[in-house]
Amino acid sequence: MLPESPVGAKLRVTGVRLPLADAFRLHEMGVRLGTLARVTQHAAFGGRVIAVAGSRYALDGGTAALIDVEPVGPLSSPMTRP
Amino acid sequence: MSCHGPAPLPVADRHGTHTADDRTSPAPLRVLLVGGPNVGKSTLFNALTGARQRTTNAPGTTVELATGTWRTAAPGSRDPAIERAVVDLPGTYSLLARSADEQVTADAVRELAWQAPACACAATSRLGVAGVAVVVLDSTALARSLYLLAQVAETGVPLVVALTMLDLAATATDSPTGAMEPQALAAALVAAIGVPVVPVDARNRAHGGLRDLARAVDEVAAHPTHVTGIDVPARTVSDGATAAVLDLAQELTHAETLFAWVERVATCLAQVTTGLAPASDTDADLTCEHPRRHLPSGRGLRGRSSSGRSSGPILSDRIDTVLLNPWAGIPVFLGVVWLLFELTTRLAAPLQDVIDRLVNGALASAVTALLGLVGLDDSWVQGLLVNGLLAGVGTVMTFVPVMAVMFAALGVLEDSGYLARAAFVADRVMRSLGLDGRALLPLIVGFGCNLPAFAATRTLPNARQRLLTGLLVPLTSCSARLTVYVLLAGAFFPDHAGTVIFAMYVTSVLLVLGGGLALRRTLFRDVQAGPLILILPPYQRPHLRTLGMSVRLRVGAFVIGAGKIIVATMLVVWLLMALPATGQYAVGDAPVADSLYGRMASGIAPVLAPAGFGNDHAAAALMTGFVAKEVVVGSFAQSYAVPEPGDPGRAGTLGERLRDSFDASSRGHGGAAALAFMIFVLAYTPCVAALAEQRRLFGWRPTACAVGVQIIAAWVLAVLVFQVGSRL
């Protein structure tokens, strides 16, 4: 779960349980299934900031809780580096 | 293909403005700047157009657009300059619009696609096409921007890619493409997508790329090329529909093909970035061509130094550990808002005084003296020029420092990257009203002055949120209303004046919350607090020249847009005060009570009787307060024919007169009537300047409706307060 992941954790997005329109927008913005991410900040009220391919995404607590992730090891490709 | 596209956008040229329909001669090439939020689009627009720009609302919307003329010297010194009409479109992540702002961008791109040369209904530029889209990509986050590029390419619009944020890419150690020199990155991208890619450093024009961009735009206009691997026009993106009415599942299925294209391009770039030999042919749609042949002659495919590059925290991450900290983030945000509040009140106040003295003092005296030379002193002409026209101009000019300070402060917050963080930090607070966290900023600033608060609504990402926030701003108790509270609280509740004034501010907060909830459950059901997914731009130092240009442009738009309404209103007020209601006075000689203005106040007074202040003095003061709340105290003093107190808290004779007339009109419940009057002052229209700015930003209809609702709400609340208070 994204909210439980510590700062610095490297993750892979495995599921997005947001309503379709919101999940679609998240995909359009660059966070899709299989995307590699790194948690860079825990904010107030459960908010999370994740790094994806050089961008920083701020997610409110409710949204972060609906993004499923799994931990990953060292990354192989710079373009998929979080 | 249909020629009936969306409403054409306004286009500025050096001779003024015309619309896309106004095409009797070869039109200047239209250049649309398309890109995501915070990718440097507006900075590029400023660099391209300089001072030759204006802001206007997109047709039929309250979405603000900047349009301008991009002029470059033509090849050969004797040729005239080449002009292009540039439109800075609202930032969007997708052409599947989710808001009015995004719809404007999607429509503009679609309109350009419909104006292809084959379409007989659209005139084309001298170069053969109606326009070119410049898709602005953030070089620190290329993969994120490629999806929008794919959508634009899919419409069939001729396009050029502008790579921005090059200075930040050098320090973005975790950016996949940050290791590449700009020219190398551009060459790699050209190799991957097959359309011109120009690195531009708009923040530092000396390092430029702007000439290259001009050349690329003209080249594409003359010989349109299309993005490799994108089918045109297999389908157009959301032909006129918004995401709300689209079959999202179907759109998502289609989007997957674009996502796959994005992945393939990203893979090609990754191969170049890591120094791997590009694949000769990865699949049927996309060839990872080696970028070498797209580099300027004599240049190799160089990368930046690899030292210090890692996937660890970058400088912005380290700053965010403080500014977004769960404990420190909110105090920091409140500190920033407090600073903004102080800047728009304390910093601007001395400048306002200077301007006021210049216009209403020195300039008014000079005009009076000049009129005296031609025998027109003490005439209605003097009244019209000095008390009407000059007073109106003075009012506009005294607001210029406030607006300039606000625009500059907002520009710094936006350019530095903090504004997006503010939205994130304040998100929870504003969520109950369905608003973005950034809405808290104008609502707090409104307690200083409503006028810059309206300006601050522009930081909100969509038009409906801006309108909702703009309707709530007048309910924040600006400092001008404080003088009225101090006068009446001091006169009627001398032992509890502080408590009464505090209660007015608490009431103001409750009105904002109540008004917000009521609006959201009625007229703004569509404004919902969805998931907050925000891309945080990297922190950067604001660029002074760009900031100055933006402030000048926005202040100019205020002076012209709102100023004419303010001056016209001041002239009307002067006229009503100058015209006698009976034949026994000459124009300009009648006392206020015997002027049309005084008679109007007398006519209004009975309507105010249920609130306990149905007297001519209170009615006239409220009418004057419509122009500016600062003059309510002076209006009372004038109508009672007593000196205006220097300190409203020590009203002296004025206080006695107020108690007498309020007691008389309320049958002995002067205190309750005074409270009701203060509530009315809090809830009704803030001032004509705020009204003019509201009209400029949101249009006549919402403004007129808001004024009507505010007056009715003010009356209902005042009656309620008086009826309850007088029975206690």
Describe it for me?
By secondary structure, chain A is α+β, with helices and mostly antiparallel strands. Helices cover 17% and strands 35% of the residues of chain A. Chain A is built from two helices and five strands. A five-stranded antiparallel beta sheet of chain A has the order 4-3-2-1-5. In chain A, strand 2 and strand 3 (48-52) form a beta hairpin. Chain A is globular and about 30 Å long. Chain B is an alpha/beta fold and 728 residues long. Among the domains of chain B are: 27-295, Rossmann fold, CATH 3.40.50.300; 591-725, no CATH class. Chain B is built from 26 helices and ten strands. Chain B has helices at 41-49, 100-114, 142-154, 166-171, 182-193, 210-222, 248-273, 315-323, 329-373, 380-416, 418-425, 427-431, 440-445, 450-456, 463-472, 479-492, 497-521, 544-561, 563-578, 596-608, 616-627, 632-640, 653-665, 670-683, 688-698, 700-725; strands at 10-13, 16-19, 29-35, 53-57, 64-72, 82-88, 131-138, 159-164, 197-199, 533-536. The interface between A and B is large, with 42 and 56 residues. Strand 4 (55-59) of chain A pairs antiparallel with strand 10 (533-536) of chain B, so a sheet runs across the interface.
Comma- or semicolon-separated keywords:
heterodimer; A: 82 residues; alpha+beta; SH3 type barrels; 17% helix; globular; B: 728 residues; alpha/beta; 7-stranded mixed sheet; 26 helices; 54% helix; 8% strand
